[in-house]
C-alpha cells in the first residue's frame, strides 16, 4: 500500500513538473481545431516561427533534467526507508508512571548500553519518554524505543528470564535476537507490562531511584500511561 501511494505521488509530481517546465504545451489543441492529430505540428511550427524558440526549448530541457534528478533522489530515499523494517522514525511518545506517580526512565539520562532503568520524579526528560513500536517481530508485542535515542530499546539485562533481573537500555536488536525487548501492553490506561522472553511482568523494586525489575505476576502491577507527545 505504501509503495502504491508513493507511485501515485510520483506520477502526480511528474505531471506537475511537466506543466512547470512548459512541456505540456505540446499537448494543447489549437482553439477551434477539432482534429487532435494536427495540434503537435501546429505548436512546433509556432515555436519555429518564434525567434527565441531554440533558447526557450533549451531552458525547458534544462528544467526537466533538474526535476528528473530531484525525482530520482526522492525515489531512492523512499525505497531505502521502505526497505528497512523496524528502523526509528518520527513517532508518538508516552511516559509510564508507577502506582506512586514516578516515571520509568534511564538512570541519570545516561544512554550508554547497559545503563539501568529506574523510576524517578517525572521531569519531562527525554529518557523518560517511550515510543511503542509494533514492528517487534512478534504479533501483539511492542518495542519500547527511548525518547533520548530511539535506536535504543527497553531490554532485560543479558536476556535473563529469572525473577528480579534488572531492566536496562540497549540498542534495538534484530528480530532473531530481540526476544527480551518485546513487551505485551494492553490497550488500556492502566495496565501491567509483560516480557515476551520471560513471561514476567515489570515493576519498581523500591522507592524513587530504585531499579525496575521483572517479577512474578501473581498480583498485576499496573503502569499508567499519560498523554502522548509527538517529537
Q: How much helicity do the residues have?
A: 25-40%
Helix/strand structural class:
alpha+beta
Percent range for β-strand residues: 15-25%
Biggest sheet record: 4 strands, antiparallel
CATH topology of the largest domain: Trefoil (Acidic Fibroblast Growth Factor, subunit A)
Tell me the radius of gyration.
28 Å
- Mean of pLDDT: 77
The number of distinct structural domains comes to 2
Reported CATH architecture of the largest domain? Trefoil
CATH class of the largest domain: Mainly Beta
Number of strands: 15
From the structure provided, what is the oligomeric state, counting identical versus distinct chains?
single chain
Helix and strand sequence: HHHEEEEEEEEEEEEEEE
Number of H- or I-type helical stretches = 3
Residue stretches low in confidence (pLDDT < 50, at least 5 long) are 1-8, 23-31, 36-47, 76-89
Distance between the amino and carboxyl termini: 25 Å
For the biggest β-sheet, the strand order reads: 6-5-1-15
Amino acid at each position: 500500500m505504501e509503495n502504491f501511494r508513493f507511485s501515485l505521488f510520483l506520477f502526480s509530481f511528474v505531471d506537475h513538473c511537466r506543466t512547470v517546465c512548459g512541456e505540456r504545451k505540446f499537448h494543447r489543441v489549437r482553439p477551434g481545431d477539432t482534429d487532435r492529430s494536427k495540434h503537435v505540428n501546429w505548436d512546433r511550427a509556432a515555436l519555429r516561427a518564434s525567434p527565441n524558440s531554440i533558447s526557450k526549448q533549451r531552458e525547458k530541457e534544462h528544467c526537466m533534467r533538474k526535476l528528473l534528478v530531484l525525482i530520482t533522489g526522492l525515489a531512492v530515499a523512499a525505497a531505502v526507508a521502505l526497505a528497512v523494517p523496524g528502523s526509528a522514525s518520527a513517532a508518538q511518545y508516552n511516559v509510564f508512571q508507577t502506582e506512586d506517580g514516578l516515571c520509568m526512565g534511564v538512570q541519570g539520562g545516561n544512554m550508554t548500553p547497559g545503563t539501568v532503568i529506574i523510576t524517578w520524579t517525572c521531569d519531562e526528560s527525554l529518557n523518560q519518554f517511550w515510543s511503542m513500536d509494533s514492528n517487534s517481530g512478534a504479533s501483539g508485542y511492542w518495542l519500547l524505543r527511548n525518547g533520548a535515542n530511539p535506536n535504543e530499546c527497553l531490554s532485560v539485562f543479558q536476556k535473563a528470564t529469572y525473577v528480579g533481573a534488572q531492566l536496562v537500555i540497549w540498542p534495538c536488536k534484530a528480530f532473531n535476537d530481540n526476544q527480551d525487548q518485546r513487551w505485551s501492553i494492553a490497550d488500556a490506561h492502566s495496565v501491567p507490562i509483560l516480557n515476551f522472553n520471560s513471561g514476567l511482568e515489570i515493576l519498581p523494586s523500591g522507592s524513587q531511584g530504585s531499579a525496575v525489575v521483572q517479577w512474578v505476576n501473581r498480583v498485576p502491577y499496573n503502569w499508567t500511561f499519560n498523554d502522548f507527545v509527538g517529537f
